[in-house]
Amino acid sequence: MQFDIFFSISQTPVDGVTPPESVMFSNFFEQVEAADALGFGTAWVAESHLSTEIQKQHENAVVPHWKGEIGLNTDIFQMAHAVFKRTRNINVGSAVMNLVCNGGPVARAEQIAAFCTLHGMDPEEQRRLCVGFSAGRFQFMNRAYGIKPRNAVEAAAWPALRGQVFAEACEIFLRLLRGDTLSSDDIRETWMTRSNFRSDEDWERVKTAAGESGAEKIQIDRRWDFDVLKVVPGEWRRELLELVIGSHDPRLQVDVNQYMPVKVFNLSITQPEIIDATHERMAECFHPDGGAWTRPDMPRTVMVFINEQPGLTPSQRSDAAKEEAKAALGAYWTALEGTLDPAKVERAANNAIIGNASEIAEQIRERYHPDDRLMLWFDFFNHDSARVVANMEAFRHQVIPLVNG
Predict the structure, then answer these.
(1) Sign of the C-alpha dihedral computed for residues 143, 147, 151 and 155 taken in this order
(2) Is residue 72 part of a domain?
(3) Do the domain assignments include residue 198?
């Protein structure tokens, strides 16, 4: 089994204390240097944009109860350069980069080309930039960059149209990364039909807004309009880039792999039947340039609450880990009150691994395939960097040997 690490850099109060930004970043670099020394594979860093705290002033706040900032990393490219400078072996990944905001797919393709050109100038360099990308979870971030309904038809269709906007962005992004020369006229057209919507009522609202009550399909203008172009630099080392899509839309997973090898992100709350179906589908559609599909091609996020503190018996460490998990997850539930399906939150708690080292090893063996790749989340509502590093060390030296023999 392979083990990566996920970093949230989430500036939220814990026990009434919110560290300043300088401490948050200092903690992150201390932890990522430890992860590198311990031999973890990839440091996946969460991405966020704009102040979550300030968005609570919006009329339709997305996370009205969240205190502090969901994340402080806004630029994986600058972050990756800083991490690579401080480490020797670990890869760096975005978890996940918003593809539609902050310049959109053309800008993102150009940023990757520039980064990989500079990163790969040393012929001995083998560390990869792993770009996880998605449509973005929080709409207040996208709206600030102009990704919002442009007219009444798009407003009526928006819950379903958001996915089509992302699909358009994916095609532009991947074809430019591949080295294509293209204009927006070369990109797919977007047509909305009944199949895009959850109910007849939703579809009727769109047709009414378009003034086409009898229509079977309605065309939406392209989101990105540009003349023929090509991204430079163009002669960069593609083997230093790994692409991972943050979407469980089966059609989109297949679609993006017609352009380049694109792997799939998996959240800890995803149900086993979806995981199995994804592996089966990707084994058939994964782009041949990526080789044969394997289970590590879908990294899986998991929250870790381990206690191997000295001076405690195994039973006491188990009890302490459970209390730590209860406190952290309780704060999370409070922060997201009214914004998530409670059943999904409950599944997230059930999918955390909690206990002393031997208990956590047993939980991993029971829940995961022996060839899986796990993204371990140690800094979840925990600003005690020394303790986070100690937990990482305990996992590396006590859990992994039990799991992998």
Answers:
(1) negative
(2) yes
(3) no
Answer yes or no: is pLDDT of 340 > 70. no
Strand ranges (E), 73-175: 91-98, 129-134
State residue 331 phi and psi, 5-degree precision: -65, -35
Q: Which residues contact 268 (CB under 8 A, 6 or more apart)?
A: 300, 301, 302, 303, 348, 351, 352
User: Of the candidates 368, 351, 378, which has an alpha carbon nearest to the alpha carbon of residue 404?
Assistant: 368
Number of domains, the chain: 1
CATH number, domain containing residue 331: 3.20.20.30
Residue 399 lies in a domain: yes
**SS3 of residue 121 by DSSP:** coil
Q: Do the domain assignments include residue 134?
A: yes
What's the domain range around 258?
A: 2-150+164-176+229-404
Bridge partners (DSSP) of residue 86 are none
Helix axes 76-86, 21-38, angle to 10 degrees: 50
pLDDT given at position 351: 74
* Preceding omega of 96 cis (within 30 degrees of 0): yes
Residue 270 confidence class, pLDDT cut points 50, 70, 90 = confident
Residue 4 pairs in a beta bridge with 375
pLDDT in tens, 71-111: 999 999 999 999 999 999 999 999 999 999 999 999 999 99
Instruction: Give the residue among 129, 87, 92 at the shortest CA–CA distance from 111.
Output: 129
Q: What tens digit of pLDDT does each residue of 182-216 get? A: 999 999 999 999 999 999 999 999 999 999 999 99
Residue 274, classed as helix, strand or coil, is helix
Name residue 243's beta-bridge partners. 131
